[in-house]
Structures are given as C-alpha cells and as structure tokens.
Amino acid sequence: MNNIIVYDTTLRDGSQAEGVFFSLQDKIDIALRLDDLGVDYVEGGYPGSNPKDRDFFQKIAAHELSHARIVAFGSTRRADRKAEDDQGLRALLDAGTKVVTIVAKGWDLHVKEVLRVPLETNLEMVSDSVKFLKSHGKEVFVDIEHFFDGYKSDARYALKVLKTATSSGADGVVLCDTNGGSLPSDIFEAVKKARRQVKVPLGIHAHNDCDMAVANTLTAVDAGVTHVQGTINGFGERCGNADLCSIIPNLALKKGLGCLDQDKLKKLTEVSRYVNEVANLAPRSNQPFVGVSAFAHKGGLHVDAIRKNRSTYEHISPEAVGNERRILISELSGNATLLAKTSRHDITGDKELMRKILRQVQDRENKGYHYESAEASFEILVLKTLGKHKRFFDLVGYRAIVERHDGLPVTEATIKINVNGVEELTASEGDGPVNALDAALRKALEKFYPNIKDMRLVDFKVRVIDPKDGTAAKVRVIIQSQDHQDIWGTVGVSGNIIEASWEALVDSIEYKLLKDEERAAQPKATAAKEGPQ
Predict the structure, then answer these.
(1) Which of 54, 125, 142, 265 is the most buried (most CB within 10 A)?
(2) C-beta of residue 223 within 8 angstroms of C-beta of residue 195
C-alpha cells in the first residue's frame, strides 16, 4: 500500500486550461497511460455537464485497468432539491464508477454571494449529498473548494464544513486552494488544524496562481496529508494545477514516500510528453524532472564536473524519471564538452583535432548557427571534420514555385538528386515551399532508402538572426524530426529561408540514414566479435 495516494485530475481540471482540448478517444488513451503509470485515482470528468464525459465513463468501463480507479466528479445537491431528485447526483450514479468526488463550498463568502443560501443550508447540502452517495455504495471524496480562503475568513465555519462531510460518511476530504493564492506557511497551519479535527484521510488540491502549487502540496504532506491531487504537466485553469510530474518524484525520491514503484517512476517523462502531444502543446523545455533541459549541461566547467561525478550538477539520476542527460554544444563549450559529445569517436588524445572542432563550432555560431537544439547537425559537423562523413545523395538542383489560384496559395517543388550515379527527378505539392521540398526530397529518396518513410518532421522554427537588416536578414531554421526510436534536431542558416530550410532538411535525412546504418551494423559487428558458436 502506498504511503501517499496519487489522484490525477488531468481529464477534468486539466482540460479546463486555455488551449487544451481532449477528444473522447484522447481521454480514453490518457486514462490508460495513467493507469499504466500507477496512478491510484483518475478523475474522468463531470458526467452532469456534457455528453462527452458521460460517454467517457461508458467506454472506459470496457477496459480492464491494472491499478487505477476511475472517478466521476460532481457537486453537492442544489439548494432547492432533495438529494434523490438532484440531476447532478443522479448523473454521478449513472456514470457507474465505484468512486465519486463532489465539490462543496468551504468559504463563507461563496456560500453567501455565489450560492446565496444561509451557512447552515450549505452544511445540509454537503451532508445530504454524501449520505445519498454512500447509500448507493460509493466511495466518496469531498473537495472543499476554497478551503484555505475560507479558513482565513472564518476558520470555525471552514472546519465545520470539513467535519460535516466526514460525519456524514465521506471516505476522504480534500482541502482545496482553489484561487492558488496561499503560501506554504498558510497551508501548513490550516492542514495541521484540519488534521486534528477529523480521522479520515486528508487530501490537498492546489492551484498555481502564486507559482506555489507544488510547494504547497509538499508542505501539506509534511502537515499530515496522505492524498495528493494534481495534473500531468500542471495543466489547469488560469495558471494551472499542481504538477504531478514534479510532485511524484519529490515525494518518491526526496521524501522517500511511496507513491509510485521505481519501475513506474521511470515512465514519468514518457507520460508527460505523451499528454503534451495529445493536447497538441509544445512541451516546456525547462520543466523540472521531465523537461528536455532538466538535465542539460552547457558550460564547460559544468560538463567537466559532470564527467567526473554526475552528482556535482544533477540532483537526481535522469534515468530515475525516464529522462536523459544532454550535453549542449555552443561557443561556450570547452574541451570537456567536446570530449563528452565526441566520446564515441575516440579522439580524446588528438588535441589539435579537438581544437579544430571547437573553432568550427565557434565560427559557425558567429555566423548564426546554433547547436543546442541541433545535435544531429553537430554530429554531422564532427564527421565532416574527421573526414568520415558519408554523403547519401547529392543535389543537382531544386525549384520551388508559389502561385495563387482561386484565392489560395499553391506550392510546388521540383528536385533533382544523384544517388550513387543515378539521377532522380521528382515533384511534389505542399502547404508551403519547405513542406513541398520535404515531400519531393522524400519521394526521390524512398526508392533508394525506404526507411525514411519512418521519419516525420515534428517541429519547424525560424528565427531572424539580425533584425536590423530587415527582410535581407539571415534566418536560422531549426527542424525537429522523429522516427520510432529517436527525436533529433538540425539547423540551417542563410539569407534565403528556403536555402536555410533545405540545409536543415538535408542534415535531418542524412542523420536518419546514418543512425539506421549504424544500428543495422551493430548486430553484425557483435556476431563477428563473438565468432562461430
């Protein structure tokens, strides 16, 4: 049994974030990922509010979950209805889940000015709702909305709501910092007081309006909370909810509290990136624990120290949360960085060659190149410097035409390439010149290298290097590509955006072909080394 219960509300509270939309299938897929991660409770939505959430509970019931319990969310009965006649409570029963969560008002201001009922009536609404749901065999959690604001306003009444919920049979009560305006000291004091009032498990649900949601959650645990709520990547209304991707590793790795098995914890980065992808949102590179920059090292002194002892600049092992260390190349790089990045080429003893690579990096960055997000282009640069670069094809020429027909732009690209003495001419249309060039190049290469069908372009960024030159300024294009195994970045720089894009595209495809060739050669090399059996 875990020391701390993890309750995920990405599918309900997280979906209320600006710019986040989950289809029904998205919700099903995310719920299954959360179950595989080892989350204890997955709040699926508000069946009383919309048909999609009602459909979710029907469809998720057809899936056999290994760990998580699905939760339907609602609110206490309306003031003018009996519990048995309340449509919202009926919707919770119809959802068919074994667990339900209802939200109750814990701030006297909301009772008076939002519900506009006497304080005692709010208590009756809480009590009636809990008893009704318990009479139907449900496990019931009560989220006390605005508990901490209510505690500051009228602590006696806020605690009375808490005790009413527990005396009516609630299995757990969750203290909510709904406005996200509390500080850790506020949280600690109120949770300590609440802990002395009730015997059922206490939970915490923190919003991030003061950038304190994770800190407030961990403080609440220190004060006696055993149930934590949050969302993957901190999705949520306004500034978001407490980020489970930070809460979980802090609990497990810093506080030594059981919440996920170690093997499950290693899936955290994968789940974080999966939810971002489903939500069609760019991941936060500097997100703690799971961001691509969380264990990235750039300064030469840092890299030198990391090579000697990883704990010098890493507070945990990246692998513990399924992430990885990255050594960044830039004009700030020193020998230690180059040693780390070129270790597989075994050039440690060649100081002149190391200096040559470093000079090339610094010279190219001075021209606008940028290798932090383009490690594949750096690898190709190293191979060219070593004289080991293999050209998989040569460009004979290309042409991109943009025309306007019936009020819409139409783009066509034509490419002629040479592969081992064989010329190939292809044309393709696209949404723009870069897309058309990419499609034409792939079409030309697929007959020679069918494995490039596995790769796709996942991000395309253009940056003006020197804005004072206006439309004549050089641009830097960063392309991110992906296949079934890896994600890699490449860079191109030119005064012509098409040429810069072409350079990055060529590096991207060459890197794909290079790594596939190396991967295919590895089993053969191993077999040759082992010899006949």
Answers:
(1) 142
(2) yes
C-alpha 308/C-alpha 318 separation (Å) is: 16
Q: What is the pLDDT of residue 533?
A: 43
In our burial notation (b when 16+ CB lie closer than 10 A, e otherwise), range 336-371 reads bbbbbbbeebebeeeeebbeebbebbeebbeebbbb
Q: SS3 for 233? A: helix
Contact 12, 22 (CB under 8 A): no
Specify whether the CB–CB gap between 437 and 505 falls below 8 A: yes
Helix (H, G, I), strand (E, B) or coil at 384: helix
- Here the tokens at position 297 are 């090292």
User: How confident is the model over 466-474, as a mean pLDDT?
Assistant: 69
Cβ count within 10 A of residue 25? 11
Give the position of tokens 């050039």: 347
Return the pLDDT at 339. Answer: 54
Phi and psi at residue 204, in whole multiples of 5°? -130, 135
Q: Strand, helix or coil at 317?
A: coil
pLDDT at residue 1, rounded to an integer = 41
Q: Which residues of 251-283 are buried (b: 16+ CB within 10 A; e: fewer)?
A: bbbeeebebbeeebbebbbbbbbbbbebbeeeb
Read off the pLDDT of residues 201-225 as tens digits, 9 standing for 90 and up: 999 999 999 999 999 999 999 999 9
Q: What is the mean pLDDT of the chain?
A: 90
What is the CATH T-level fold of the domain 5-260, as seen in this structure?
TIM Barrel (3.20.20)
Domain residue ranges of the chain, discontinuous segments joined by +: 5-260
Alpha helices (H) in 136-279, listed in sequence order: 147-167, 184-197, 213-222, 244-249, 262-265, 268-279
Q: Which of 197, 254, 239, 243 is nearest to 216 (CA)?
A: 243
Spatial contact of 27 and 44, defined as CB atoms under 8 Å apart: yes
Residue 112: DSSP 8-state: I
Instruction: Write down the pLDDT at residue 526.
Output: 47
The CB density around residue 215, as the number of other CB atoms within 10 Å, is 18
pLDDT-derived band at 5 (thresholds 50, 70, 90) equals very high
What is the 8-class DSSP label of residue 201? P
Least confident of 27-31, 232-236, 371-375, 432-436: 371-375
pLDDT at 185 over 60: yes
